[in-house]
Amino acid sequence: MSDPDGDERLDSAEAGAPQPEETAEDTPEQTLRTRHAARTRSAASRAAAICHYIEQHSSDEKHEGGAAEREISWKSAHAARVAAQAVAVLSESSPAPAADSRCARNASASAAQAAQVGQLHDGSSELSVVAYRAALKASQAAAEAAGAEGLGENETLNARADTAEANAIAAAEKAGWMLPGQDVPQMSTGMRSPDLMSMMHL
């Protein structure tokens, strides 16, 4: 069983975030776009899966909590929507490593928020605690890759973010929040105003 402190490295690091193949025609910007986009979609899938998980289990007898349960559901849905917005923004723009990495950062941050809610929903079970801490580490690694030292182009920071995302996927699967290869229902992005996008630095 995993270490409750989340320090144990999960074995399936290479099995998480998708890594699309590069083509000979790809420019450096496009190659980086492919990498950041894969991590963005992976994080958004984690957030959506947690939202779906909570919706499916919120009617269970042990989770009948009235207002508290409704708040958990709302928070998970909100996190999943914000992550979906990052995917949408990425698809609507031209390749730019700094901006693309910010989309990955924002999606990962939202997935960490969803994981925190998932932990609360599961009563801070051991596996949910590990999954939340893995999600938090993925968010921190994505932020570093997008930060001033990386701007989405630093290979070392990008590799750390890829590995952390894969670890977060593996932990979410162990927690039961998502299944390997699960076809997660797409989340609506909701209304995306210019002010909101500016606030999110997208």
Describe this structure in words.
This protein has helices at residues 28-57, 67-91, 97-121, 126-146, 155-174, 194-199. Residues 1-15 and 193-197 have low confidence and may be disordered. It is globular and about 50 Å long. It is mainly α. Helix content is 63%, strand content 0%. The chain is built from six helices and no strands.
Summarize the structure.
By secondary structure, the chain is mainly α.
Show the helix and strand layout.
Elements: H1 28-57, H2 67-91, H3 97-121, H4 126-146, H5 155-174, H6 194-199
Helix pairs in contact: 1-2, 1-3, 1-5, 2-3, 3-4, 4-5
Task: Describe this protein with a few key phrases.
disordered N terminus, mainly alpha, 202 residues
Approximate shape: globular
Mean pLDDT over all positions: 84
Give the structural class.
mainly alpha
What proportion of the residues is helical, as a percent range?
Answer: 55-70%
Radius of gyration: 16 Å
Report how far the terminal alpha carbons are from each other.
39 Å
The major β-sheet equals: none
Helix/strand order: HHHHHH
Give the amount of beta strand, in percent.
Answer: under 5%
* Low-pLDDT segments, ≥5 res: 1-15, 193-197
Count of helices?
6
Number of strands: 0
